[in-house]
Design goal:
363 residues; 0% strand
Length: 363
């Protein structure tokens, strides 16, 4: 509706032209105060030739109210040109909100507004964003923390990170702390703490009592030794498992005697001890590993690499007779590795005997 059309309408109907312009002005002013979109405003301003500040007699507070009601600052620069008024920081903060999707997928919306308008959220608003990402409603996704720091220049608050660490570790012992429950909870908790540590670089300042309890529970699991979880706990807390030296050696030796040498490297770091093994204990470890039908080659290599002690000739020959494999390829792989480690080849009699046993099996 162009201004000349309004004036033609006034002339045709006998209405006073000034009265028509006043009504249009009042309508536009009313629409402005209730926060109509920028595009609507500029369409009417272009059509009528009215000026926002002079003709509509808007105050600075009323322009600020438009920013608040419109709740979209994309055209803030253009509106500033029309009114000379820039939105207050409280209003700017309104576009820097957080959602779970943003915490998971990234802060693209913040990046767009910062780049387009050259503004940043206030310190208080930035703290709210950090609190959201580190809150109970967001247990896994911490990548947004790094983006918030990059976009705002405000460091991740260590007290919030420590609070999150404490929340994660306390949840482990809240219920179901035996058997599979403690294994499952600690695995989940360590993965979450590792993510948080990787993003923030902040070590967890968890109570020593809780950390020691976690180590104790994990090492007490008779079914599964969750070394990865213990290693993560050590990395994020920088706290060793504090037991007497004799107990530390006992734990390490129990692993060796189970043929589980590959995990000793991790545990010696967590226990901060240097393992000591007798020749007899290493031979016993080889014998134990040979009796295990799972990952035998991997286990015996780990024992050799860790102790640098070869199997005795007696244990070496015993190995060829004790190891069981249901196929030629499986035994061939073992025999080749065992010869390399022990320096003793398979006796011809044993080789024929094992070949006959494989050929006589009913598959």
């Amino acid at each position: 509706m162009a201004l000349e059309h309004l004036l033609s309408y006034a002339e045709a109907t006998g209405l006073d032209a000034d009265e028509v312009k006043v009504k249009v002005r009042d309508k536009l002013r009313s629409d402005f105060l209730r926060g109509v979109c920028y595009e609507y405003l500029t369409t009417y301003l272009d059509a009528t030739g009215l000026n926002l500040m002079d003709d509509l007699k808007l105050s600075e507070d009323e322009v600020q109210r438009w920013y608040e009601n419109y709740s979209n600052l994309w055209h803030a620069k253009e509106m500033e040109k029309l009114t000379g008024v820039w939105p207050k920081q409280e209003c700017i903060d309104g576009v820097f909100y957080m959602t779970k999707e943003m915490a998971e997928k990234g802060m693209d919306l913040w990046r767009v507004y910062i780049n387009h308008l050259g503004v940043k959220p206030s310190f208080e608003k930035t703290m709210e964003a950090y609190q959201f990402v580190l809150g109970d409603e967001n247990p896994w996704d911490y990548g947004a923390l790094r983006e918030i720091t990059e976009l705002t220049g405000v460091d991740i608050p260590e007290d919030l990170v420590q609070r999150k660490y404490s929340s994660i570790i306390k949840d482990v012992f809240s219920e179901g702390t035996e058997g599979f429950h403690i294994w499952n909870r600690m695995s989940s908790a360590s993965a979450r703490m590792k993510k948080l540590f990787d993003v923030t670089g902040i070590n967890a300042n968890i109570s020593e009592e809780l950390v020691q309890e976690a180590y104790h529970r994990l090492l007490s699991d008779k079914l599964y030794l969750n070394v990865e979880t213990m290693e993560t706990l050590y990395e994020v807390t920088n706290m060793k498992y504090d037991v007497p030296e004799a107990e530390a050696q006992k734990i390490i030796k129990s692993l060796l005697l189970k043929g589980d040498a590959e995990h000793i490297v991790v545990l010696k770091k967590i226990l901060q001890t240097e393992p000591e093994f007798s020749y007899e204990e290493v031979q016993e470890a080889y014998s134990t590993a040979l009796g295990n039908c799972f990952d035998v080659t991997k286990r015996i290599r780990a024992i050799k690499d860790f102790t640098d002690v070869k199997p005795s000739e007696m244990v070496a020959i015993e190995g060829y007779t004790r190891h069981k494999s249901c196929c030629f390829s499986g035994y061939t792989t073992f025999a080749s590795a065992w010869k390399e480690i022990s320096g003793v080849g398979i006796p011809e009699e044993v080789a024929h005997k094992y070949l006959d046993s494989l050929l006589n099996r009913n598959f």
